[in-house]
Specification:
The chain is mainly α and about 190 residues long. The chain is built from 9 helices and no strands.
Length: about 190
């Protein structure tokens, strides 16, 4: 569905890949573009209307939160809105966790290939052979079963969302400071 989304201007919304789940080396703009175009792509995707509403509400809350979080100039009212949006986003994530148990989800093909490569590397080290001639991971991936994946809201990434408004109050917006100054300093003995 993302593939059918038209581009917008020259650099605003770029053309999506054929399979958005298989995209590699994503830039920040790719994540932002996929979030901005998510609502029409997910519309009428779920057969259960209640589940559809929960997913679309979550996507809206993510877009709202993202829009507030990336502002370059914050006031007390925008930070209060960001805190409110964070609370709503947390509620939407908890609702998604409840319905996600009803759907059987599995790992993506690229995650499966990476898992098999890790297993092969671990096995070759355990055997003691540094380099062992084995079948290509994509050939093994076709034979092996997909691992089930469950939605986990208890990751640090989601936990840190609650601290975002407080961090902006304390340090300012992300564009107001840079690590470039430190990286260009040369130390002389």
């Amino acid at each position: 569905r993302y593939r059918h989304v038209p581009t917008f201007l020259r650099d605003t919304i770029r053309r999506f890949a054929t399979n958005i789940a298989e995209m590699k080396k994503l830039a920040g703009r790719d994540f932002e573009d996929s979030l901005q175009c998510a609502l029409p792509c997910f519309e009428a995707l779920f057969p259960n209307k209640q589940h559809q509403k929960i997913v679309l509400d979550l996507l809206f809350d993510l877009g709202w939160w993202h829009g507030l979080a990336k502002l370059r100039l914050h006031t007390d009212s925008t930070l209060a809105s960001l805190e409110h949006a964070t609370v709503e986003l947390g509620r939407s994530i908890r609702r998604l966790e409840l319905i996600s148990q009803e759907y059987a989800t599995c790992e993506l093909p690229k995650e499966k290939r990476a898992r098999i490569q890790r297993q092969q590397k671990r096995d070759s080290v355990a055997v003691g052979a540094a380099r062992r001639a084995t079948a290509h991971p994509t050939q093994i991936a076709k034979k092996e079963q997909d691992q089930p994946r469950r939605f986990d809201r208890k990751s640090y990434k989601r936990h840190a969302l609650g601290d975002y408004a407080r961090a902006i109050r304390y340090w300012g917006t992300i564009d107001s400071y840079s690590t470039q100054i430190v990286s260009t300093v040369r130390f002389v003995r």
